[in-house]
Design brief:
By secondary structure, this protein is an alpha/beta fold. It contains 10 helices and 8 strands. It has an 8-stranded mixed beta sheet with strand order 1-2-4-3-5-6-7-8, with helices on both faces. The longest helix is centred in the first third of the chain and has 14 residues, at about 70-85. It starts with a strand and ends with a helix.
Amino acid sequence: MSKVKVNDIQVYYDVKGEGFPLVMIMGLSANADWWYIDPHWIQELSEKFKLVMFDNRGAGRTDVSDRRYAIKLFADDTAGLLDALGISKADVFGISMGGMIAQELVLNYPEKVEKLVLCSTYCGGTKSVLPSPKVLEILTADRSMLSPEEIARMSIPLFFRDDFIKKNPNVVEHAIQQMLKAPISNEAFTRQLNALMEFDTYDRLSGIKGPTLILHGKQDVLVPPENGSILAEAIPNAEVVYLKNSAHGLVEETEKVIPVLLNFLVE
């Protein structure tokens, strides 16, 4: 766990395992700690790859900065981190907003990306399918008077199925504790959210030429599953895999997700 200068900020990052690099990009408000919500991801992937996890600009322990946030800027940060770590090319796994960052990364720095995995994400703009008004209300609620724990608990239904939450209280509590290790500030969250709202890659997706896997939970209420098919149709030769019992984080079916991921990355 270290920090390195990237562009105008200090970026916090963590490296696990050895082998070909797999850059793992987290989503809105999230940071490297969130990869440990289900420890199996790190345990199994680090046996095959050198995992590079980090906190996006404004999140966790990475600097906030006064620059105007944009998904392209986050992709520039990711490319800069690879350069700082001496990594010329890597497989890239992005979840949620991290999947949007991954799209901008491969479109702007194609030479840095070997294989691309887009998880629980969308292309943005008018071609994407938005969540329900109820979900949008939670996502855009005024957080200024809420504690980090209240925000985490409010967010849980966006990430897991309702019945999974009821049946797995220990998993939920562990997830909340991971979220509370280095919570994002309200200002930085708003700036990340605004960047997400302005994101749109649809007309450029045909420019993605490398192997692409799209993973999406059929029970995802935060990024509706139709978005997986939209991406798959727009990206040449992309493969889409749906997890029928999974919500946004795919934690409900980890035992199915990891083999699919490994089969794609190591084949």
